Amino acid sequence: MPIGRSNNRLHDQLRSITIEANIAPHASGSVLIGFGNTRVICAATVESKVPSWMKQQGVKGGWLTAEYSMLPYSTLDRKPRDITKNKIDGRTVEIQRLIGRSLRAVLDLQKLGEHTLWLDCDVLQADGGTRTAAITGAYIASRLAIQKLLDAKKIAENPLVDSVAAVSVGLYQGEALLDLNYIEDKDAEVDANVVMTGRGQFVEVQSSGEESTFSHEQLQTLLALAQTGLKELAIRQTEFLARQLL
Q1: Model confidence at 216, in pLDDT bands (50, 70, 90)?
Q2: What is the pLDDT of residues 42-96, one digit of tens each?
Q3: Among the four 204, 208, 236, 241, which has the fewest Cβ within 10 Å?
Q4: Strand, helix or coil at 206?
């Protein structure tokens, strides 16, 4: 008998996706993105300078970097801020590097000019898939921020060469599921996070067995499932931006 999912979701169905623009008015571009009960503020801020290492090494163009955090009240039990521990959590470092890599994969840094695009992704509520929601929302925030550069004629053309989004998939009670919530994710035998461009090119695939193994066929099933969700997310991003950039 097939397992039941919250809200009677199908195995290949995304959670309810919500996107609200201009959630952080002082940012160059921002959204509050929701994957079901997971809610992440993604804000993009443009600085008219580049990191010192680029100048020292003679690297031309601009740069993009990301920071990620889970706010203390985003989980059932309060999560202490990194600053109170005097060190950044290893998971935090991993995720913010993933966000940065994902966005740089679709960004022509030469066309960005001597600007740094800062992406700040802050989790308001965590119910699984915070990194995938952050990547999906960070792209939208980046596109909004870049439009301001274009409108101000600070850059000549859009440096984003494609869109990018991310989604989770996994094997839960032996069945392949798309866009896992926390309950499904914590008990999954296998989980994966897949990052893909709007044109269908993979940026990154993170997959691991949780005290379990998985076959080549199961991996292919998960990747196909992820592609289904990512195509839909790309459409949602495009439709949302079309309304915002009228």
Answers
A1: very high
A2: 999 999 999 999 989 999 999 999 999 999 889 888 988 877 777 788 889 999 9
A3: 208
A4: strand
Query: Which of helix, strand or coil describes residue 122?
Result: strand
Q: Are 163 and 135 in contact (CB under 8 A)?
A: no
Question: How do the residues of the chain divide into helix, strand and coil, expressed in percent and rounded to 5?
Answer: 35, 30, 35
Going along the chain from its start, the domains and CATH numbers come out as: 6-244 (3.30.230.70)
Which CA distances in Å does 134 have to 27, 67, 110, 171? 16, 10, 25, 22
Could you count the other beta carbons within 10 Å of the beta carbon of residue 58? 6
Burial string for 118-128 (b: 16+ CB within 10 Å, else e) reads: bbbbbbbbbbb
Distance between CA atoms of 135 and 26, rounded to whole angstroms?
Answer: 20
Residue 176, pLDDT above cutoff 90: yes
Q: How far apart are alpha carbons 34 and 22 in whole angstroms?
A: 14
DSSP letter string, 131-144: HHHHHHHHHHHHHH
How many residues would you count in the chain? 246
One-letter amino acid at 75 equals T
